[in-house]
Each structure stands twice: as C-alpha cells, then as structure tokens.
Amino acid sequence: MKGFTGPIYSYLAAVLVSMVLVSLLLALFRIPIFETYTLLITGSLGSMTKLGDTLMVSVPLIIASASLVITFKAGLWNIGVEGQIIAGAVAASFIARELQMPTQILLPAMIGAGFLGGAFWGLLVGLLKIRGGVNEIFGGLGLDFVATGLVVYLVIGPWSRKGIASTSGTEPFHENAWFPTVEGFRLSPLAVSVSLLVVLMVIFVFNRTQFGLKLRSIGLNPNSSYRFGIPTSRYILTALVLGGAVAGLAGVTQVASIHHRLVPSISGGYGFLGILVVLLAGYRPFLVIPIAFFFSMIAIGSIQWQLRLGLHSSLGGVFQGTLVLSVVLISAMRLLRQRREKHVKTEE
Amino acid sequence: MSLKLLNIRKSFGTILANDDISVEIGQGEIHGLLGENGAGKSTLVNIISGSLTSDSGTISLDGKYLDMSSPSDAIEAGIGILHQEPLVFLPFSIVDNFLAGLPKSRDFDRKLLQDDVRKISQEYGFDLDPNALASNLTVGERQQLEIARLLWMGARVLILDEPTTAISETQRENLFTTIKLLAANGMSVIFVSHKLDEIQSICDRVTVLRKGSLIDTPTLPCPTSELVNLMFGEYTQDIPQNQSVIGENLLVLDGICVKDANSVIEEVHCKFSEGEIIGLAGLEGAGQRILLRGIAGLTKCYRGRIFFKEKEITNQSYKWYMENGFHYLPADREGEGLIQGLTITEHFALAGNQSQTIDWNKAAQLAEDKLREYSIRGTVTSKPEDLSGGNQQRLLLALMPDNLSVLSMEHPTRGLDIESAEWIWKELLERSKNGTTIIFSSSDIDELINFSDRILVCFSGTIIGNLLSKETTPYEIGSLIGGIHS
Amino acid sequence: MNPETLAIVISYATPLVFAVIGETITEKAGVVNLSLDGSMLLSAMTGFAVSFTTGNVVLGLMAGGLISSNIALVIAFSSIRLRLNQIAVGIVLTLFAAKLSAFLGQDFVRKPGPSVQDLHIPVLGDIPGIGPILFQQNLLVYSSYILVGFFFWFIFYTRQGLNLQAVGERPEAAYARGIDVNKLRYFYTALGGFLVGLGGAAFSLDVKLGWSDGHIANFGWIALAIVIFGGWHPIRAALGCYLFGLLQLVALKLQPLFPQLSQVLPIIPFPLMIMTLVFINHRKIQYLILRNNVFGRFITGRAPSALGESFQRL
Fold this sequence. Notes:
The complex is a heterotrimer. By secondary structure, chain A is mainly α.
C-alpha cells in the first residue's frame, strides 16, 4: 500500500467526496456551509498574523511528515514518530536549561541535541526490530508512550517549577533559547527554514542519492534488494535512526519556537497527523509541503470557526480524517477495479 | 468402485495445463502420476481435490458425477489429499487438528475422538498420541496425522502429493507400508512422485503426463527406460554440442553443504574451470536452487570449503562475492530479481553503485544504451511489471557487470518465447567465451545437453551424477533425475 | 488494602476487559484492529449521548457497541476486499473517530447523566473476603466475568472457537477444511469491534461518568498493549487488565508521597508489551512455545501465525 497514487482526477474526486460528506455533517448541525469554507480561507490566510500562525503550525507537521516519508519509503510502518519528537524536545530542553550561552551557540546546540535525541529514540525502535524481532509498529507505539511517561516525569519531577508539581510545564527557557521571530509576529524564519531544509534534504536523498534509491528498493522488494547487494538490516536501522533524528527536529521547533519550555503534550500529535499527510502525499516528499500547509490552514482556520461560528475545534480534524479516508478508499477501489479488468483479460 | 476422470481440460491464459485427460482408477489400486515439472500434474491433482475447477470434463466416483468447487466438497465426496507440506495446525493438538473445520453433521466430542484416533493409529500402525501437539511431530508423523484424519473423514480416494520429499528413509518405509495397507482395505490411492523407483515399487499402474497431455498409462512393473522415454519423449535428432573454451580450475567446492528453510544440498565436491558451462539437472527441490545460492555467496554453507583462484573464500560476505565477480540470477525474476515499482533507469543506477550521488542523465543514457544493446522492448521509464518475461530476463542480463567470474543462474529460459530463449543463450555463450563460468539449473533436458559442457544431476539433496554432455544421453539424465543409476 | 478499594480496581478495569477480549478475538482471526483508541472514544461518546437522550443505559451500551463494530467492519473491508494495509487504515480511523467523537459530543460535555446501577448479588456478595470485591458491583462487571469465561471456553473448547483459531493460524489449511476464511474474519472483526465499543460505552457510563474530549484516557492504546501482554489468551488478558487497574490504584495511593511516580505508572503496559514481544520472539522461547503443553502456552503466549496477513483462495 502506498497511500495515494493515481491520476489527478481521481484525487479531485476524493477531495470532492470528502467535502460533500463534511457539508452533510454541517447541514446536519445547521451550520452555514459556504461561510464555513470561506472562513477556513480567511481565518488561516486572511492577515499576516494568521498566515504567520499557519506557517508556524505547518513547521512541525512538515518535519514530522518528512521523517515519516523516510521510513515509509523503506517499507517501515514507523508509528513511533510521536516518541521521537518528544525525545528531540527533551534533549533540546536539556541543553536550553543546562547551558548558559549566547543564542548563536545555544540554538545550534539545541538543534543538534534534538537531532541526536530523536535519532536515539529511532535507534531503539530499529534495534528492537532487527535484534529483538519486535515489529516497528508495536515497538514504535510502545516507545511513544514511554517517551510521554518520561516527559511527564521530567515536568513534574526533576524539571518542575519551584514549589509547584503540576503537569503544566517547566519554567520557560531563557530567551537565548528562543528561536528569533519576525517583529510583532509569532513567525520564526529559522523554524520555517529548518522545515524547508529538512524537506529539501529528504527530496535530495530520494532523488539524488544511492542511499535513498536503496531505501526505496528495500521498501519495494527486500529480497531483490538483498540480491542486488544491499545490506537490508543495516539500511532499515539507518532509516529508522535518520527518521528519528528528523522527527527530533520537530521537537526542537516545538520547544524553541512555540512553547519555549517543555510541556507534557509537546509532540502536539504531529507524529500521527503526519501519517495522514504522508498517505495523502502518496509518500512523495515534495507534496508534503502543500498538504501539510493545507492541514495547518484547517488547524488555524478552525480557530475562527470556533470564534465566529461557535463550531467545535475538532471539526478540522474531522475534515482531515474524512479527506484521507476518502482518498485512500477511493484509490484502493480504483486499483481493485483495475485488477479485476486485468484478471478478466487474462482469463479470456 | 472407481474414480473416473473423463476429458479433463484446464488452461491458464494461453497455456493448456491439462489437455483432455481421461483416467480410471479402480478400488484398491495404487495409481502413480508421473511427469516433469510443468507437465500438468499439480493442475490435475488440484482439480481432483477440489482446489481448481476444470474448464470442461467430468469426475465421477462410483458412477456418481461430482460437482466440486472447494476442497471441502471433495472430502465430502470421499476424496482426500495429503499435501507435500501437510496442512496441519502446528499449535493444535492432534485431536484439535481433526476437529478444525468439522462438518456440521459430525459431533464435536474430544473424548470420543481420542478413541477414534487410537483406533485408527492401531489399525495402521501409527504412533499418534491424541493429545500431543502437532508441532512436536516429525513431518512423517504429520503425514500420518493427515492420513488418519482423511480416513476418519471418510476418504475413499487418497491423493498423496510428492509425500516423500521431506521425510527420512525409515519414515518412507513406514509410509509405503501404510499405503499398501490402505489399498488392501479398498482405498484408491493416487501417488504423485518424480521418483521412478518409488513409482515402480509401489504403484499398480502409472499415468504419465507430458506438456499437459496424457502420454500413456502403463501397468507396472515395466522397464524403467520406458517410463523415462514416456516422461521426456524420445530424442532422435542429433543435438549440436556447445564448444566452450575451458581454462584453468577457477572454483573448487570441497564437500560443501548448504541449506535454508525449504531445501538442502549436501557434500558437493566439484571443480569448475574458467569459461566452463555446467548444467544442473534435477527435479524441483532436489537442491539445485540452494546450491546455486551457495555458489554465489548468497547463502552461507554450513560445512565444507570453497576455493576461488586457489584461495579459500568460504566465509567471505556476499558483498565480497559480488565484488569478485560472482553473480546470481533467480528463477523468480519479479520476486527476487527485479524490483517492481522502480524504473529501468533506477535499476541501472542501483546496479551501478559507484558514487553516493546519482547522475540521472548518465544513468538514463546507460539504460538507453543497454536497452538497445539487449533489444529490450521498453523505455527507460518502464517498470519490470510492464515487461514480458523475456524482456525481464534480458534486463537482468543487461544489469550484470561486464566482467563476471562466476554466473550462477536458475532456469535461464523458463517461460520465455523461443526468440528470447535463443537470444539469452547467445548472450550467455558470449559471456562464457570471455571467461565467465556459468552454472545454471534447468528442467529442460534439451537445454542442458545443448549448452553445458558438463551436467550435474541433483537428487534429493545430493549430486548423484557428473556427466560430460558430449557422452551422455537424455535417457541417462532422465533416469538419474528419477533417482535410477543405470 | 481494604475490599472497597479492590472492588474499585475491578470496576475500573472492566471497560478494558471488554476491549481486550474484543481485540483478542479479532486478532485470533488474523486481523489487527488498530483503531481501538478512536473506536472507544466514539463509542464512549455515543454510549453516553444515547443514554442521556433516552435515559436508557442498555440502549447506550448497544449503540456504543454498534458504532465501534462498524468501524471494525471498515477495517475488515479495506484489508480483505481492498487489500489495504490494516495498520494504515487503523491509524487513519483512530484519528478520525477521535475527532468525530469530540465534534459530535460537543453538546454532551460535562453533563450529568445516567449510569449503570449497582446490583449486589445476594449470596455471593456476602462471601467474606472476595464477596465485596467481586460481587457487590453492577451488571456490566458481572457480564465481563461471564464474557472472559465464555470466550475462554468458546475459543478453546468449541467447534466454532477452533475454527476461529484455525483461520488466524493457517488460513489455507482452514480453507482446505471447508472453513470460509474471509467470512469468519468479517464476523469476528465486527464482533470484536462490538465488544471494544461496549468497553468504550462502559467507560463513560460506569467508570468516569459523562463525556469530555479525549474521555477514555488512552484506554484504547492500553488495550492493544494488554492484548499482547495477555498472550492472546482471554484469561491472561483479563488478569492483565486487573493488574493495570491495580497499578493505577497504587499510583493514586502513592500520589502524595511520590507525585512523579503516580503520573508515570499508567505507561507501564507499554514497556510490558515490548518485553513480551521480545520474549516471545526469542528463539529459545519460541522453541519452548512449540514444545510445551497448554500451561506452557499460557505462560509464554503466542501470536496467531497469520496475524495481519490477507488470504486469497487459489
């Protein structure tokens, strides 16, 4: 299964189907349909502030999706990205808390630490898989929750605010550990650049390098790949480590440009949401940016839904879910029909 | 009582797997079913046991026509099959193996069944403890379990599909005793095998299939030579011999043993010279595939030593083998050869493997050139799934490095059209002239004699014949394939 | 610990027991329903909303079961008919159902509503020691006991149960014996989904009354972990649920002394799941599993061989 693959018209058909379904839902709740859709656009792109917010939400989602592309292309169902984001956030927070340094040194150090933290968490999934025989699905899922436990422990334990043991978060970092923002906006050019660089790197790896080509070939056919001389276990481990490292960067942007401290919900669910993005993109890295941006528009636009129409914030998620379900199911039905036709032909 | 097949016909696409087959098998008869790979045996067996439906023709048992659309219909009608790999549930006890999928008409009662199992075991001399787990049984005992179950289900016709492939000598003796006892009790037995001596020793009559057609149904015993001729056809014309240049001893196998989950080859002693072409004859699963993988370094041998240019290379990695000019081409071109979903250009980039970054223009240019050189019908952006079998095989050859020392290849022309097959061999002979040692397996005796300098015959996991193709005959090869030393 | 607190453990773990038994049956048939967390949320919401509107708790439970059963059918259909990856569809449905539960349940948030009424069993409830723990509960809890016992008996001692195992173990052999593999897979995926939904509804009608966003506190994911920890064995899985309930209680008791520990304990099922998987995949253990008797299998646990694999006839 490759998520969405196929001609553009069937893609559009799926988008249409999901819009119809969501409209039906809106009609059911007597919500003005047209206004809802226009508010989505104006609410997310209508002003510089809103556009900036949308961009900032898209940053961790783009990074998490890029990380997922790496492992999905290698045929690995890595659902451990949540944990890897957290591991990156924890590592970056450690640096931010422990090192008193000028921002020019501190920020790169945080980025590096987040990269390594995520890589370590990915390494655990990989080792469990190739040494312990634990499927990456369950290894990754388990480690997601272990990471959650770890961050909760830190927030209310060793890193708790003085005198308060609550789950609301650590002490805010010193401003040296904040990603600089555009004056008057929440937009951080550094964070956006990191996300774009990551996608460019993933595109480069899969379009230009032997390493990327080999990962793809393992994902498509591990037996043939081994015959071609590719050491499959080592590449699988590398893919999980690299995917983890990239996911760790999403953790860095979460602590350094959004929350400015460590909070229990630091991963923001982007590890799971990224799976939807990647399925919609059919594993194509360049499509990750527009799709993740669209998802962020829904996320920010739905705030306006809440404010202006009194709609529940979860409607955005319903929309995203419907979209992905329609696209995945419709393209699978198309494939089924193709298989049938082919089958009939060979029978004759 | 008898099982009667009349005008059974079945085709897959353009291939006629069973062409108008009619046989009658009497009560208490042990009836052999003999033929090369691809002769149509398994299609026929699948039709009789309900896994496939024939395009036309009828099956009747005791004069009653059977209309079967699944294996359970067959067993209800009284036809049971013992698969090569017995279809038992390993984590289940023997009793539970009897009870899984039990027809509604029968009682689900473990206690009663224990007695039944003991009774059947006693009658046929099986050693089955009703409460033992199937995973604790040997393959021979799993066969006994299945036979006992089929008897208990009321089978009157029993099909044994190559039952002796995975069992020991003593287990085989026991199985044969059982089969004779079954027949004496009135069971009709269909015994599918490649092994001529087994067919001779146990069957009353044998149906020989070749290329989907029924050739003859002689009564046994008859001269083995006759069976060999029926199986492989008579060879009358003179066959041109391959004349390859034979150089120094390049590769020496000193008693190597290789195995994987499904197959094994043991104690192979052999020397291969530069530019020599060696054919591996034998039936499917006799050990050719695993030997070819062992030679190419893809599967490590667990005993014995391999020498290459007089240096020991037994424990070198597959990577080392590849770097030193070893190459393996599998029979499963889509599953293990090419990568579905990657374009031809991407295949060349993958096989080229020089620098860390890929120059796609160069790769596409290389692909373009190779497509022309190997006359592959396709473009640089085609994917393996778009190509015909012949073009896939050409692509696999085109992907090989130029200077190979040893090429280890399964079934070079299986499933290919004549033009592609000729083309493939022209290319392989060219490679051999340039010094590449080629070791290939084939189930086509013409191909083996035509193109090899020497033929090794594999039988049940050992090499039982090492023949010079100039001096041998199809008959000799055929007998050895069936396990008969002349 | 006094009987009342242990009684709370039992009642707290009951939704998990439903969900874990449901998923165990589904996986026994060879299908993975990864949507548990979303399914349980949606059915917790549905269960509460229906009970709230109709005033009938039983209707609420049934509605919860049905909605989750339908989600499970989507997974069965996508994997059997459309040959999609069960994991992918499961994840998408998890997220979708979770959001849908929040959206559809917005009018029911933090409203007081009906709950399952206590029902003390006269004689059994008076047994000193275990009586107050096990038998001064409600019908939901009692049906969970029956459910565990029933499915233990069903899976290992009935014709249909054996066929269920056969389908998840070796579908081609099951087919050869006349079992309709895919029909059974549809059926047990739907049935398992129904029980998962009962678990979700039980949560909002008995454990944490009412509805709020993300109401079920990761119980779906925890259930998935306990299915593995429970070695696909209904009794062991149920014990796993009670163990989890006990750990939660311990965490609560320890809160004043070790606040960190109490927050971290809920994740315990996940490392346990990973350790179980490492354990059963270990070569020597595998050897033991295949060699050992029924008790040995209870201790070691064993995944259905064809779990997650699709089946197509010849």
